[in-house]
């Protein structure tokens, strides 16, 4: 049902973004991939999905302008690229704060401001952002991430209101812990911050807050993203969907 529509998924060489890109391509969208990775693997992915790849660094606004130029007019914008750093606030490196705010929050502003004119002109568009349960609730040692994700949820509400009469919706999907490289890579820092073993971090920190005691799978997030693109979802805008195994229900 997405034949004739172009979808840009930021941070789609791995994890959740990759699952979303695959799901949108399966619905017929022309997909533009973005993110870092091994050249050969990315070429194989492009081949598999009939997609193009633009390797812009989204922490810099000029990187985002280059990406949007290379992508061309976009009908479905998925703001997904993100990163994490785990440290007590007094030890939190200021450059990590700046980079996380730039990638997890400001990048979504820049992609949206550049994508919206085409969406308005076409009278149809979908802006979907991968926020996080951390857009709804906090955890210690994640000051930049929690601040950026709360900001992303706020930006989404503003976009929803501004675009409400133009056939363009803006929504967030807010997963709990999804088993991706982003989660796996934060285990060593959490071990250090909390003085725990790997198993303790997995069971007592990551899955402790997730009542299902299971990681969300990237494909579950992708399925919701696809639904938000459907005509049946045209009245869903400004929403922030928790997909967190019950975490934020507590
Ligand atoms: P991941 O680390 O597997 O993938 C991140 C993607 O972003 C990769 O494609 C990477 O190349 C790209 N990327 C990183 N820095 C970039 C930059 N500067 N410019 C452009 N691209 C860049 O991560 P993931 O777990 O799939 O996370 C995707 C999104 O989902 C993030 O926004 C993350 O905050 C959010 N999220 C993840 C979880 C989880 O448990 N994994 C939970 C909630 C929210």
Automatic annotation (TrEMBL):
One of its GO terms (molecular function) is 3-hydroxybutyrate dehydrogenase activity. GO terms for biological process: monocarboxylic acid metabolic process. Transmembrane segments: none annotated. PROSITE patterns: ADH_SHORT (PS00061). Gene3D superfamilies: NAD(P)-binding Rossmann-like Domain. Keywords: Oxidoreductase. InterPro entries: 3-OHbutyrate_DH (IPR011294), NAD(P)-bd_dom_sf (IPR036291), Sc_DH/Rdtase_CS (IPR020904), SDR (IPR050259), SDR_fam (IPR002347). Pfam families: adh_short_C2. Its EC number is 1.1.1.30. Belongs to the short-chain dehydrogenases/reductases (SDR) family. This is 3-hydroxybutyrate dehydrogenase. It comes from Croceibacterium soli. The lineage of its organism: Bacteria, Pseudomonadati, Pseudomonadota, Alphaproteobacteria, Sphingomonadales.
């Amino acid at each position: 049902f997405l034949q004739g529509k172009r979808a840009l998924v930021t941070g789609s060489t791995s994890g959740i973004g990759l699952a979303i890109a695959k799901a949108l391509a399966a619905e017929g969208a022309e997909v533009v991939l973005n993110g870092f990775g091994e050249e050969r693997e990315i070429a194989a992915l492009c081949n598999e999905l009939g997609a193009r790849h633009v390797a812009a660094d989204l922490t810099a606004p000029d990187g985002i302008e280059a990406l949007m130029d290379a992508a061309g007019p976009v009908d479905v914008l998925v703001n997904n690229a993100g990163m994490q750093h785990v440290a007590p606030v007094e030890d939190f490196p200021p450059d990590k704060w700046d980079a996380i705010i730039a990638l997890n929050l400001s990048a979504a502003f820049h992609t949206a401001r550049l994508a919206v004119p085409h969406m308005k002109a076409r009278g149809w568009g979908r802006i979907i952002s991968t926020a996080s349960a951390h857009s709804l609730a906090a955890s210690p040692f994640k000051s930049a991430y929690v601040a950026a994700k709360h900001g992303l949820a706020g930006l989404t509400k503003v976009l929803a209101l501004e675009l409400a009469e133009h056939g363009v919706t803006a929504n967030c999907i807010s997963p709990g812990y999804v088993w991706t490289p982003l989660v796996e890579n934060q285990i060593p820092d959490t071990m250090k911050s909390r003085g725990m073993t790997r198993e303790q971090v997995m069971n007592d920190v990551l899955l402790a807050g997730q009542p299902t005691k299971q990681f969300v799978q990237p494909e579950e997030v992708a399925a919701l993203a696809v639904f938000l693109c459907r005509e049946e979802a045209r009245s869903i805008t400004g929403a922030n969907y928790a997909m967190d195994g019950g975490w934020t229900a507590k």
